[in-house]
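ugh ok so i messed up the first submission bc i forgot one of the chains. this is the corrected input, ALL of the components this time, i swear. 829 residues overall. if the numbers dont match what u have on ur side tell me asap before i send this to the collaborators (the ones from the other lab, u know who)
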Amino acid sequence: MPSPDGATAIEVESTFFPSLGTTSPFHLTVDFADHPFTHALQIDDVAISNASSCSVSILCGIESPKVLAIQLSQPLPKTLGFSFPESQSWLKSESPAGKSPNPSAPPANPANGGEGNSTGGDATNRCVPNSAEGSESNASPAAAPPKLFGSTDVATGKRTRLNPPKDLVRLEDRLYYLLQPPLETIVQSAKLTFPFQPFSYQMEGIAFLFPRNAAILADEMGLGKTMQAITAIRMLLLSGELQNTLLICPKPLVTNWVREFRQWAPEIPVAVIEGDSSKRAWVWSNPQAPVKIANYELMLRDSSVIDDESLHFDLVVLDEAQRIKNRTSTTSEVVRSIPRSRSWALTGTPIENSVEDLVSIFEFLSPGYLRDDMHLKSLGKATRDYILRRTKDKVLTDMPPRLFRKADLDLSQEQRASYRAAEEEGIVHLSELGESITVQHVFELVLRLKQICNFDPATGSSTKMERLEADMEEIAASGQKAIVFSQWVETLSVIADKLDRFNPLQYHGRVPSNKRDGVIEKFKNDPNCNVILMSYGAGAVGLNLQFCHYVFLFDRWWNPAVEDQAINRAHRLGVKQPVTVTRMMAVETIEQRIDEVLEQKRALFNTLFAETGTPGNLGLSQHEIFGLFGLSVPKFAKAA
Amino acid sequence: MEAHQGTAQHSIGFASIRERSPHGYFGGFLVVNTLARPMEFHCTLPIVPTRAQQILFGKTLDEFLCGEQIARALLTKSKIKPKVVFTDCPAALSVRHWVDLPVFLIVGDSERFGSEHEGFRVPSASRAEDEFSRLQLGDYQFQWLSKYANDSRALEGLHDDGVFPLDLFEPFSRINEALSEANPRTKAA
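and heres the new structure output, hopefully the right one now
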């Protein structure tokens, strides 16, 4: 209001003062002859409370007052509001006919057969706008009040909040997550129990997965991706956002997942899709199990079931998601075709060979979102909100370290002779092939030479074996256990014979899957079994062998990511001692040449991943494979 | 007094109102159940008082905007009628004149969750000390308008229900985050 010229006083009259206990008109005159207009009105005792209307008279000396009318009452501010899905079931549960709310059995838990008001995981339907809301709210209070919020310990300190993902744009959907209580409160109020207290980074991982329709949990092996996924599923079931979840994992890991669900979410019924086709068809459509577990291998066989229009999952989780890195494979195509609302991928190695692996996983998460030709920087930026990757050295600073020992060994005389002969013969053969040479020819030679590095085919001589036996004597004497990895089952069999006195167990592709759990149990519980022999293929993922403090890489895999997975069977959560990893390598052989190339790649991976969130090429390229023997890639192979 | 469409004995309302210059006053109201899970939420857009309101309401401007305007709008929009309403904004207590719900100010450690930081101001009440009643229950000190002496029964009822082991400040942090999300311009630079 502008200061009126010549004004000497102001009168304020109000008609409604409930807080003063009167509705009598209130009259106030302020003389501000000696003061600027606005200053005069800021004196402490000039204040209106709860005035519904007000008129102001400006007194200008002896002339008739000019009157300005100021309307103080105004419509109430506009509000934005919505109800949460749970409110309906909560109010119902409070009605006289309903059950009294029970903190230990929340009403919206489909896993317990509760009255879920699920929206099927569709973010756009999570919040119920008030205008569309029914009047379920005439319920009267329940007779027996629950103990509110359980016995929450206020002083726990750490709170893990849910943050909406960036691709969630509707304000109501974003507020839906922002207004959820901290995870710790959900855990306490719903009386969820855990076999042990999750680490704070694991709670953050759960908070990352919880609101996301598309997510990759790419934690380093051993940080508990399984537990984080299970707990996120558990909480989503509890909140009514999920009713039907499908988890797909490699076949050997099915029993591991069942065991982990039993441990981390014992109240959730889990159904394994297995058996003959009729049994599988029944399990696929079984509505009683909110979580179903299938393996990649049967995706192909059950593709017709998956094509059924009535099949829909609120969430599909891919464990070891690098299994779909080849997007043209039938398995990948079938997995991508599963009707679903949410898609999560779990993998410690989102990129095994090239960024195309990551693009393939995104074809499952969000088809078309990434392209193979995207610049690395753009790729990193585009995927940042979808990928969570933590490494042990960042989050488990007090975890016992991995101690790497390089066992650089000279070949025995017999091995060296065999090796030289095979190499010379092989290179001559490759040269003779000329332009018809393929990478397969080179591979064959590499494999042959690597096998000689393990054992001399003629005499069985092996410096690696001698070293392993010596180390095993010491390990067994101290009551410890060891894992030995090789890429060949035949090699493992020979090692088993040589280590017979240490009661070795074997775990590889030729061990029937229904006997594998028994092998692991025996290794864990039998004090006489000091060593387990594993192939990289069967033993590299999903096993928990943290009671084992020695790992031997008898020969080397092509990809350091796979070696890391193998090592992390032992070096994972719960490990009490440092894990000693012995990498065996025959010097001045093909093994050393491969090792040098892979070390360079490992350094590149670490650099790229740290800076951009996306790793680079880890495997050996065609050029590098030919380069192992000083060969260049022929023109024909280049074109292919 | 405005009527609510529903009642929920086992729900609690939390009203938080802030002022951030130059954006104005804005508030949020969250109803949670006894598992701390959200049932209903309402918020306002920022309100900037007119110059006339500033002049004529003087010291009572905060109470007018926070109690009579914002909190009243929020509470009357709520379909669920909670057992009690807690606020961390002293100026919002005056909403009690307009709604038939016991309203309590929680005094104390509100800074933990961002009440008075990042340029936000918690609007204050301009009443004499003797206009407030006070009660210490568990770790919390509550304050309400003495005129509504019977409201203390609701508070004691909650205490008997065992509500006070819960963290009554925590929901205010949710409201403040939601308000920042709903009004991104008001976020601290």
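quick check: Residues 61-77 of chain B form the longest helix (17 residues). that seems consistent at least. Strands of chain B lie at 6-7, 11-20, 24-33, 38-44, 80-81, 84-87, 103-107, 132-137, 140-145.
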